[in-house]
Amino acid sequence: MKRVARGFTLIELMIVVAIIGILAAVAIPSYGDYVARAQVMEALSLTSQYKIMLTEYYQDNGGFVVDGTPVNTTIIPGTTSGKYVQNVVFERQAGGTITVTATFRTTGTAKPLQGRAFGLATVDGGLTWVCGESIPAAVQPTVAQVDSKYIPAACR
Q1: Which domains, ranges and CATH numbers included, belong to the chain?
Q2: pTM for the whole thing?
């Protein structure tokens, strides 16, 4: 009687395991970056909601300070936190310059984002807005910024 070979040889199984290991070594870091970019999109969404409201506030009041009180999230209400974003604040500089900064939580977010910030800024009272790396150095948020590889393409 002839014996019929069934199954895989040990070398074939080892090759499959090696291929899976190589694919996992490449995919896991890429997945982490993808998760971080998705979490930055939440920050972009939370900060972007204030663009029109702050522009209208500036146009109506002639500045971001009225009677000595700077504009803040109690004067202009909106969603100031999310699943990954701890808070959103306004940082006002002189004249028509203001940054809207979203700070990420220190837990529950992707490691490279923990405690970092993403911001939008205007230097002309809301006529034009810039974000991420496009924010002028003089107006950068005071919290450490998100790394450039996680910032949406529109903000680079």
Answers
A1: 10-155 (3.30.700.10)
A2: 0.81
* Distances from the Cα of 51 to the Cα of 44, 78, 86, 91, angstroms: 11, 11, 19, 14
Strands of 3-152, DSSP E: 65-66, 69-70, 85-92, 98-104, 117-122, 130-131
Q: What is the pLDDT of residues 18-62, one digit of tens each?
A: 999 999 999 988 898 999 999 999 999 999 999 999 999 999 988
Tokens for 30? 């890429």
- The candidate with the shortest Cα–Cα distance to 85, out of 152, 17, 38, is 38
Phi/psi at 142 (nearest 5 deg)? -75, -15
Which residues fall within 8 angstroms of residue 156, CB to CB, at 6 or more apart?
Answer: 132, 133, 134, 148
Cβ-based burial of 130 (10 A; exposed 0-12, middle 13-18, buried ≥19) = middle
- The two tokens of residue 150 are 């996680």
Cα angle for residues 29, 31, 36 (degrees, 5° grid): 100
Location of structure tokens 């895989």: 8
Q: Structure tokens of 91?
A: 């940082």
